[in-house]
Amino acid sequence: MNCILLPAVNFHNESAYINAAAQIEHVNQVLGAKVGDTLKVGQLEGHLGSAVITDMTPERILLGNVDLTTAPPPKLDLTVVLALPRPKVLRRLIMDMTALGVRDIILINSYRTQKSYWQSPMLNRLDEFVLEGLQQGIDTAAPRISLQKRFKPFVEDELAALMTNRAIIAHPYGALSFSQYMQQQLKNAESPQKVLPSMVFVGAEGGWIDYEVEMLARQGCQAVHIGARILRTEAAVNAILGQWLL
Amino acid sequence: MNCILLPAVNFHNESAYINAAAQIEHVNQVLGAKVGDTLKVGQLEGHLGSAVITDMTPERILLGNVDLTTAPPPKLDLTVVLALPRPKVLRRLIMDMTALGVRDIILINSYRTQKSYWQSPMLNRLDEFVLEGLQQGIDTAAPRISLQKRFKPFVEDELAALMTNRAIIAHPYGALSFSQYMQQQLKNAESPQKVLPSMVFVGAEGGWIDYEVEMLARQGCQAVHIGARILRTEAAVNAILGQWLL
Prior knowledge:
The structure is a homodimer. Chain A is built from 8 helices and 13 strands. Chain A is α/β, with parallel strands linked by helices. A 7-stranded parallel sheet of chain A has the order 9-8-7-12-10-13-11, sandwiched between helices. In chain A, strand 4 and strand 5 form a beta hairpin.
């Protein structure tokens, strides 16, 4: 937790309060903060800044001198379409994509997604994981997250409206490497930043099946690989999205 | 587990056996394999290939037609010097660095490393985490791992012998971005692959303190950042090392 994000309702003029148990615990246990100490705070969907602790009880921490003047960092111009992973790894994936600044996240069904994943109670906790990611990455603007339980109707009927001319599928058996893809795109452009894909499809454990890759390719998505090594979904997402940070 | 790695002692001519509980469970529960099925196998520090199940008991799976003809993928020309992280994340970090193909891993003390981390029983399980990483990344060659409990003597007395002219410190407050660093290096070279750093220092939660960055800089390490966003150690390691894969 590199900053403490509070909803707008917790602010009033130059005062604010923290009442979420996890945040109170962080202030006490990790920061060891006391009355008079300054905290890094932010307003959800608002600005970042600082505030001073004026009172502490076990249920509520009062803040004064609230000063929110720093705009959050820009979002990445990027939609990640992720095959719904095992619930166990969903929390960290949502946190990491949020901390990295992904603007849109679409969780989609795939052949290798087990049906039971869609019943997981973790799917009701996405807002909590997003908050963790924002507080990690020091951002206030939540990514948009949508769930697509049916792959084929989404790809055939809805994808065209969302697609740009630069969509890739992360696929260990793609013919092109990511860097070859970027070199192709760079031929007519001045900077790598301008030709980074704006949509990336990432499979879960086991990746996409050929049928899915072919269906996406018909919509204009290019399969690219990042080497012969097979990575955990989390590691792969971070290794790929690292390209947008540099 | 994308392949099953066995020690040399488990092989004899064209036969081999699996006797590790985790591997037997994987063959039964995840692969649902039966006598006559072919498995992807490899020999630790040897080659990769396939074998056919000839007999199965709860304690042992016998393999025949063992055919190991594929060399493991090349290691990355890279040493990662990692501030010893919380034991909870050590397993995944070692797994991921191994799966990514890092050749040398040095776990080092830092100002923000808690002393108790060095007493963690997880440090006795590094071989196990390496095996998981190799089986994930489909590789047979373990990275070399060393522990350095004292930062200053290591940096002042031992680092010079290990250093190359391309060592970086991942540091959110570095003056240069990774891509600016690469552009500088590229001026006199033909391809990005040839100027990738061969040593990367990565801090744990909270990163390096100024004193540590300065001490490393005196040895010729360049502090570089990958953007304003602060990532979890695991996410940061994968986002940075993703540069070596592309």
